[in-house]
Design brief:
This protein is α+β, with helices and mostly antiparallel strands and 755 residues long.
């Protein structure tokens, strides 16, 4: 689910230094003094240099590897980040002038605050049903308007069949609503769940609009009372009243990650508050198609799409409900996926979910005050869209938000368009288009950390821009997605997001085999498998044939590598890493940025010669960072920390994300953590500490190991970020790592001494 509040400004000098490494060089060339180690390694792979912030990086506590040789004269001003305030996401306080350490331009130091956090879904998780299943109702075959589709009989793995994705026709009307909220707060997000319950109480239930909640609370995250009820650690069934909560049942400890638990809640809700229209909201961390809602009291067991389908089907059937739900919503990260929409189409008329991570505040349930029993599902969804957007603006968390409302009756057209695209670029055409697909995929924005989720409509549009022969299928995709999306809000950093993501990992090695079980996505699965198989039989191996020594241009440090002729178009990812070389010849990596790949087979990495410093009072240390390009000139900076909750002896890796706009203003800051394969905002606990992390490599040909640095920071207090120049005379290392769509990697590198 969710990520947190931000500080207000970033010193221009700092931000300019941050972004200059993504430029194109130019100007005069002055070579860095080299150590004679310029090299190219076709077998480079992940173990030869090159650190990465993605995935489940450990926080090995190898002690103080320090920042040997980095020196630093502090040319940049400071930005004060967030350690984390109260769980409600309190914003930071204003700014004080911060002078440049070397007497340069005056900086601005903005204090952070707020519960940073948030994030992206892992590639783990279960299957979501087989190729069979799902009884198509009238709407599924394009029946009369208003005739409900049957709620999908369970097929293999409990999945409703793809053919029941819904045809033409709207949801039946009625004068009463029951909204069911599956509030899985048995996790670190519990404090935010209490805030959302308060919002629901500002609406309350009425004779024509009832809100029922199953709220499973956690131990150790919040002891606050809510709605007239004291703290609890079990699961309670509640009726939301105006200003209070009425407890209807205490279930004891239950596993919210089991389909049976969901089914029982559905049956109970429908029989407790019969209505003409039903909706269900799933509230917790989300991890795209693999998983939703890990339950902390049950080893972070969460619901797969197949389990959600089974729970919905069984619960509705037990309650005698034969039609579809009117509304399904995921107040969670990353759940607006093609796969989720297909899975929900047999069970609901509308779906509300986010492509990207959600801020910690999630949806604003107070916006439901405009909803009555006579409101349609689309009107309910539109109210939540508007409330979410306004709350994000008010909380200064809106830079990267996404939320889309889908008419699931129209998913059959989206499915047909995906099938057509998969046929056009796959099967017998795989080798024809594989390099074009690889090039487009390499430039696609991936939502979350290591999820492989890319925007569906944007991907199709970019394919057509790269090869006009794909324009017809691209146009069909754009039309189908545009028709299915009946409401959407996007922050400026995601202005071109089209409302749905689809699974497309960068290479075979990162493909999650559980995707094979999603029968309703079989055509896309077959395309992915064919595409990756084509990559394993690439005729010209991805390899560097040489590299120039590191040189200086306009105060940037530049490394050019040369690929084997004609192989640039098969590159799926290109990254530049930079490091300092310690007195022992070991590498201490400072960061990574995208490298540019030209069609004349040249790969270029540019570094501005600065190191990221985290400071808190007199305490400071080096930190690793990576940069991602978003929409509209926005940039996303990601920094890994080892987080020790409540002073625990064992840390967990969390990611601090900072977003800048085109004018180099800091617009949001966030901490994310992975919980059981799903991502969400980090809620910082009292007494918690953090340490920065850097990849450390013994020698230039070893394997990088993530290690905590020397200093410990108070995670509950603000800290500052600055980009300081690495000292003259420091030994440095730069490399270029490219990966093709078959998962083959190559490495080029050089070492030198800063002038």
């Amino acid at each position: 689910m969710r990520y947190g509040s931000g500080f207000d400004g970033l010193m221009i000098v700092v931000a300019a230094a941050l972004l200059v490494g993504c430029g194109s060089g130019g100007g005069s060339r002055a070579q860095v003094t080299t150590g004679g180690t310029t090299g190219a390694d076709a077998a480079g792979g992940s173990d030869t240099g090159g650190a990465s912030t993605g995935g489940d990086t450990g926080g090995a506590s190898t002690g103080g590897t320090g920042g040997a040789g980095t020196g630093g004269t502090g040319s940049g001003g400071d930005v004060t980040g967030a350690g984390g305030a109260d769980a409600a996401g309190g914003g930071g306080t204003g700014g004080t002038g911060g002078a440049d350490a070397t007497g340069g331009a005056a900086g601005v130091e903005a204090t952070g605050g707020g519960d940073a956090g948030g994030t992206t879904g892992g590639d783990t998780g279960g299957t979501a049903g087989g190729d069979t299943g799902g009884t198509a109702g009238a709407d599924a075959s394009g029946g009369d308007a208003g005739s409900p589709a049957t709620a999908g009989g369970a097929g293999a793995g409990g999945a409703g069949g793809a053919q029941s994705a819904g045809g033409a026709g709207g949801a039946p009307s009625g004068d009463t609503w029951t909204l069911m909220v599956y509030l899985q707060t048995d996790c670190d997000l519990e404090p935010f769940g209490l805030v959302d319950l308060d919002e629901m109480m500002s609406v309350g239930s009425s004779p024509d609009f009832t809100i029922l909640v199953q709220a499973d609370r956690a131990a150790g995250y919040s002891s606050e009372a809510v709605g007239g009820l004291g703290d609890w650690e079990t699961a309670k069934r509640l009726r939301v009243e105006s200003g209070s909560l009425t407890e209807l049942a205490d279930l004891g400890e239950v596993n919210m990650g089991e389909s049976a638990t969901l089914a029982e809640f559905m049956e109970w809700s429908i029989t407790t508050a019969p209505a003409d229209k039903y909706g269900v909201v799933f509230w917790d961390h989300g991890g795209a198609w693999p998983i939703f809602g890990p339950d902390a009291s049950h080893a972070h067991d969460g619901l797969t799409l197949a389990e959600i389908q089974t729970g919905l089907s069984a619960g509705m059937s037990a309650a005698g409900q034969t039609g579809r739900l009117h509304f399904v919503g995921f107040d969670a990260c990353l759940m607006a996926t093609y796969e989720t929409a297909l899975a929900m189409a047999p069970y609901s008329y509308y779906l509300l979910a986010s492509e990207n991570v959600e801020p910690g505040h999630g949806w604003d349930y107070a916006s439901l005050t405009s909803v009555t029993g006579a409101s349609t599902a689309e009107e309910l969804g539109q109210a939540l869209l508007a409330g979410y957007q306004q709350q994000a603006v008010d909380s200064e968390t809106g830079a990267s938000i996404t939320l889309s409302l889908l008419d699931l009756n129209r998913m059959s057209s989206v499915q047909t368009a995906v099938d057509s695209l998969a046929t056009a670029i796959g099967g017998a055409n795989t080798e024809t288009y594989a390099q074009t697909v690889a090039s487009v995929r390499s430039r696609s924005f991936v939502f979350g950390q290591s999820t492989g989720m890319v925007d569906l409509g944007r991907f199709a549009t970019d394919l057509a821009a790269a090869d006009s022969s794909l324009s017809p299928v691209s146009a069909d995709m754009t039309d189908a997605v545009g028709s299915a999306i009946v409401g959407m809000v996007n922050g400026p950093a995601q202005a071109t997001a089209t409302g749905l993501t689809i699974y497309f990992p960068e290479s075979q090695s990162s493909y999650d085999a559980d995707y094979d079980g999603l029968g309703y996505a079989s055509s896309w699965r077959d395309f992915l498998q064919g595409y990756f198989n084509a990559g394993t039989s690439i005729t010209t191996a991805t390899a560097f044939v040489g590299a120039d020594p590191i040189y200086v241009s306009d105060d940037d440090y530049i490394l050019d590598g040369y690929l084997a002729s004609g192989t640039a178009s098969q590159i799926a990812e290109a990254v530049m890493h930079f490091a300092v070389v310690t007195a022992n010849g070991d590498l201490l990596y400072l960061g990574e940025e995208p490298a540019a790949v030209s069609m004349d087979d040249i790969v270029t990495g540019i570094w501005d010669g600065t190191a990221l410093i985290v400071s808190q009072g007199a305490t400071w240390d080096y930190a690793y960072y990576s940069i991602t390009v978003a929409d509209g000139g926005y940039w996303v900076l990601s920094i890994p920390f080892d987080y020790y909750a409540g002073g625990a002896g064992v840390g967990e890796v969390v990611y601090y994300e900072v977003v800048f706009d085109e004018q180099i203003n800091l617009v949001s800051e966030t901490f994310y953590q992975n919980v059981g394969g799903a991502w969400g905002e980090l809620v910082i606990q009292p007494g918690s500490t953090m340490m920065t992390m850097l990849p450390f490599e013994e020698g230039a040909a070893g394997s990088a190991v993530w290690a905590d640095q020397v200093e410990t920071f108070d995670a509950t207090q603000p800290f500052s970020l600055s980009f300081d120049p690495v000292a003259s005379g420091t030994n440095i290392y730069m490399d270029l790592v490219v990966t093709d769509f078959g998962g083959n990697s190559a490495l080029a590198y050089d070492t030198g001494v800063l002038p």
